[in-house]
Backbone:
């Protein structure tokens, strides 16, 4: 009874802290997309090298997804959260001292390693302290922090990059992360749902069995591909949007910042609304809606990149953002509502590996295509359209009887 009362009292506090932590993590991720314009000038980077810099974080982040999830299930989510924030704060700050292309890649890669355990551990906490019919809403609030950063970072970058420079800006971001780490250490309280606490079994043997069971589930592979394709569109757009609008549409960073407020507001609104919608519908119904939305993403991406005016470009981008927001919120809901709490982090780690591999591959691939086609973005944009089309089939391949995909507690 006491633990239940404690859970009710601390639930909102824990979710708020997760929100703040994920906001700072996304602040850095979006910030690099704007700072890289100045970084590329300072370090004399080509488009291909710029793409590699943007991708290096995601390689480390993707590599750490499964280990981060396993560690959270084994040792507890709070420990992994705290470790993740401390490490990413250190390497965010160290971004400021990057003196070469190689140094920047190493620092951003290690930053990704540090942050890799955050989302699996945060997902485990949500699955632990929230009932099933509230988990999508809780996740929507967590992910809303990313939407807020997507909206604010263009303006923050436009003002502060010119005022204090990219190096000092990364130092400040790292210091904010250190404050978040202290708050996590002091205030996050969650029940112990590690494998040994929940089952009283040998952790090593049990984790091996869990991992084998999860990676042999067709359900999980469908999720992984769905994550990969939708995040390929997401990170492809966000990483190259500033460079594209600057080089191809002739906009300055401040103008880009104001224009990107519009899809940012819609993303935030979608996060808050879609969390409620997804909780009210079955996962089978949500799956069909997600597939239809993926069709829309492919179509509106085509219209977006062939628009003749900035106004129509932003209009189509807004539609793509709304449709993409629904899918990115739906995907973790499959894990939160079908996987037992004591192994949620491991399952989320596997699914999210797809999304972060997309973050590693897509920016670098787009940079290579821009260089290969002498500065043209056409091939790079077609790559995003193809990913959206693959996402349609990945979502539809998720088994209709989702109850059959539950991992047994026995």
Residues:
């Amino acid at each position: 009874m006491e633990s239940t009362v404690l859970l009710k009292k601390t639930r909102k506090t824990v979710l708020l802290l997760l929100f703040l932590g994920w906001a700072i993590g996304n602040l850095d991720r979006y910030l690099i997309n704007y700072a890289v314009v100045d970084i590329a000038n300072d370090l004399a980077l080509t488009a291909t090298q710029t793409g590699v810099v943007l991708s290096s974080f995601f390689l480390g982040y993707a590599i750490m997804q499964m280990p981060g999830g396993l560690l959270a299930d084994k040792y507890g989510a709070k420990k992994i959260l705290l470790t993740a924030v401390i490490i990413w704060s250190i390497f965010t700050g160290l971004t400021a001292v990057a003196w070469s292309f190689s140094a920047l890649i190493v620092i951003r890669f290690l930053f990704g390693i540090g942050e890799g355990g955050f989302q699996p551990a945060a997902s485990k906490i949500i699955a632990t302290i929230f009932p099933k019919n509230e988990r999508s809403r809780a996740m929507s609030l967590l992910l809303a922090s990313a939407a807020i950063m997507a909206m604010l970072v263009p303006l923050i970058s436009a003002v502060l990059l010119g005022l204090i420079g990219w190096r000092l800006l990364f130092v400040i971001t790292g210091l904010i992360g250190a404050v978040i780490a202290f708050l996590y250490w002091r205030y996050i309280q969650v029940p112990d749902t590690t494998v040994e606490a929940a089952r009283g079994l040998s952790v090593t043997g049990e984790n091996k069995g869990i991992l084998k069971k999860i990676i042999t589930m067709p359900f999980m592979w469908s999720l992984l591909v769905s994550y990969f394709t939708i995040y390929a569109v997401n990170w492809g757009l966000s990483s190259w949007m500033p460079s594209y609008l600057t080089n191809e549409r002739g906009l300055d960073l401040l103008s880009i910042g104001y224009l990107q407020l519009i899809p940012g507001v819609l993303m935030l609104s979608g996060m808050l609304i879609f969390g409620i919608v997804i909780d009210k519908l079955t996962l089978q119904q949500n799956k069909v809606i997600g597939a239809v939305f993926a069709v829309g993403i492919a179509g509106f991406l085509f219209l977006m990149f062939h628009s003749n005016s900035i106004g129509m470009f932003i209009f189509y981008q807004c539609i793509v953002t709304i449709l993409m927001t629904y899918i990115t919120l739906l995907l973790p809901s499959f894990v939160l509502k079908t996987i037992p709490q004591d192994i949620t982090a491991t399952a989320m780690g596997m699914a999210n590996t797809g999304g972060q591999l997309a973050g590693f591959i897509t920016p670098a691939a787009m940079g290579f295509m821009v260089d290969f086609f002498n500065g043209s973005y056409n091939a790079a944009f077609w790559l995003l359209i193809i990913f959206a089309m693959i996402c349609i089939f990945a979502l539809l391949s998720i088994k209709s009887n989702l109850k059959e995909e539950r991992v047994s507690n026995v």
In short: The chain is about 85% helix and 0% strand. The radius of gyration is 20 Å. The domain at 2-399 is CATH 1.20.1250.20 (Growth Hormone; Chain: A;).
